[in-house]
Design a protein that fits this description.
- It is built from one helix and ten strands; from the N terminus they run E-E-H-E-E-E-E-E-E-E-E.
- 5% of the residues lie in helices and 30% in strands.
- By secondary structure, the protein is mainly beta.
- It has one domain.
- The radius of gyration is 22 Å and the shape is extended.
Length: 165
């Protein structure tokens, strides 16, 4: 006769939010290994305190975000350095956020406009109260000291708050 085997059990239960259909809380965590591929120079630039945009090699359309090909004409793009100062094109105040930004709520997201660039860069505005933010106000880029190679490595502040890097 085979030996009986029983899995050990704990006193931990599962939080049930709904019965039909069953909805439970379940923690999920995983590590990903991925490549930024053609966008790698953008993230490398952030780690060096630089903002890189993409310029079309054919029609000269300028993007404030990474693009390998022009969305206007389909041709390849090349990297160019964006200025570290721009202005607020528009903004929103976020009262809810993902776990990464929950402690910062409310926080302000801005679309940064750069002179001579055709698109905008989405980023956070740090150090300004929501009621102080205005369309057209000048902002200056700052970078995390220890890069995480994420788009959130750059954020913006009001110019008088941004010392030289």
């Amino acid at each position: 006769m085979p030996k009986e085997f029983k899995l050990p059990e704990t006193e931990e239960g599962t939080i049930l939010f709904n019965i039909d259909p069953i909805i439970i809380k379940d923690h999920y965590e995983i590590d990903y290994i991925h490549s930024y591929a053609q966008d790698s120079p953008f993230f490398a630039g952030l780690s060096k305190g630089k903002l890189l945009g993409s310029r079309c090699t054919a029609c000269n359309y300028k993007y404030a975000t990474p693009r390998s090909h022009c969305m206007q004409c389909g041709q390849k793009t090349e990297w160019f350095e964006l200025p570290l100062e721009g202005s607020v094109h528009t903004y929103t105040t976020c009262y809810f956020g993902s776990e990464a930004f929950l402690k910062e709520t409310p926080f302000t997201l801005i679309l940064v406009e750069f002179p001579g660039v055709d698109t905008f860069l989405l980023s956070r505005l740090v150090g300004a109260r929501p009621e102080e933010v205005r369309i057209g106000m000048p902002v200056k880029a700052r970078f995390l000291r220890l890069s995480k190679f994420r788009a959130t490595d750059v954020y913006f502040v009001l110019p008088e708050e941004a010392p030289a890097r």
